[in-house]
Amino acid sequence: MNVTVKFFALGRELTGRSEMALELPEAATVQALIDQLKSAHPRFARLKSYLVAVNMEYADLGAPLHDGDEVAIIPPVSGG
Which domain holds residue 34? Predict the structure, then answer.
């Protein structure tokens, strides 16, 4: 299956991309996607805290993914 992954802020800096397409095995979960990202982009493993949204809804690591899903990796936001 193919999914689109969007990165913001520090996630974008660590991967060098704001968006990428990933191919995952059928019945993959958010955790499988994160594991694949860490393997392909070792700097991404530095991102210790983040939220994940699948199709614009927050999801936990066990959430199943489906072909065509859009996954957003959202790091903590600070500002002033």
Answer: 2-74
